[in-house]
Amino acid sequence: MITYPFNYKRAKSVADAEALLKTSPEAKLLAGGQTLIAAMKMRLAQPSDLIDISGIKELNYIRVTGDAVVIGAATTHYEVASSKEVAKAIPALAHLASVIGDPAVRHKGTVGGSVANNDPAADYPAAVLGLGATIKTSRRAIAADDFFQGMFTTALEDGEIITEISFPVPAKAAYKKFANPASRYAMTGAFVAKLKDGGIRVAITGAAPCVFRVPAMEAALAKTFTPDAVAKIAVDASNLNSDIHGSAEYRANLVTVMTKRAVADAA
């Protein structure tokens, strides 16, 4: 039997985790492990060390002010979904967290892990980009528009750790997704937000290799915030995902359908 040994280390703080990463260049951070553990089982990832940050209290919190919902990176999806404060401030964010995966995933998976992994079909990137959130790391603050750079690719540098994400409280917002019936990942999901300054943001996940905005829909909704405003706006299918679950053309249609539904819910 072939084995792939690794060292397990439990970080006591963010600073401790950073120090451990410096001494082990091939190490991986472990929070909820919902992606990493599966990748290791399939031999797609072979880290030399697992640095467990799930027990760091300074990464697990939800703070709500009049202007923002700030969530620590190690906060679980379940904690976000069940937070009455989040549900009151940004109902769309609480709803999004409640439809991630299944109960086991929601109780173990973390906000920071989902955003750092940037899976093409993950839900949280849509909320981060759709609300224009700010990702705070152990080194700096990164705007959502600068963070997501491609499939499983972000602006994070080696050894950089997400510590919290600040979501601006919008005037109104909603999230709708067409979920894969088996995995519950988004085949296409649309997060629509009307910000307090009047700005409109439409973020799409699941349809392409990376979460993206739709400027044409944002411009149309800025004129009239109704489902009909985006009903005839289609995205180019040439850059969208195509697999056994749905063609690129099918996903292009879902972008419009899910956006219409999200606008209807938000309005």
What does this entry look like structurally?
- The protein folds into 2 domains: 7-52, Uridine Diphospho-n-acetylenolpyruvylglucosamine Reductase, domain 2; 60-266, Uridine Diphospho-n-acetylenolpyruvylglucosamine Reductase, domain 3 (2-Layer Sandwich), CATH 3.30.465.
- Helices cover 33% and strands 24% of the residues.
- The chain is built from 11 helices and 14 strands.
- The longest helix is centred in the last third of the chain and has 19 residues, at 248-266.
- The termini are far apart.
Structural topology:
Elements: E1 7-10, H1 14-23, E2 28-30, H2 36-41, E3 49-52, E4 62-64, E5 68-72, H3 77-81, H4 84-89, H5 91-98, H6 103-108, H7 111-117, H8 124-130, E6 134-137, E7 141-143, H9 144-147, E8 148-150, E9 153-154, E10 162-168, E11 172-179, E12 186-194, E13 200-205, E14 212-213, H10 215-223, H11 248-266
Parallel strand pairs: 1-3, 2-3
Antiparallel strand pairs: 4-5, 5-10, 6-7, 6-10, 8-9, 11-12, 12-13, 13-14
Would you tell me the overall average pLDDT?
95
CATH fold description of the largest domain: Uridine Diphospho-n-acetylenolpyruvylglucosamine Reductase, domain 3
* Total separate domains: 2
Backbone structural class = alpha+beta
Radius of gyration: 18 Å
Q: What is the level-2 CATH architecture name of the largest domain?
A: 2-Layer Sandwich
CATH class assignment of the largest domain: Alpha Beta
- Topology, number of strands: 14
Low-pLDDT segments: none
Distance from N terminus to C terminus (CA atoms, Å) equals: 58 Å
The largest sheet, given as strand count, sense and whether it forms a barrel, is: 5 strands, antiparallel
Task: Work out the helix count.
Answer: 11
The secondary-structure element order is EHEHEEEHHHHHHEEHEEEEEEEHH
- Shape from CA axes? globular
Helix content: 25-40%
The strand line-up of the biggest sheet is 4-5-10-6-7
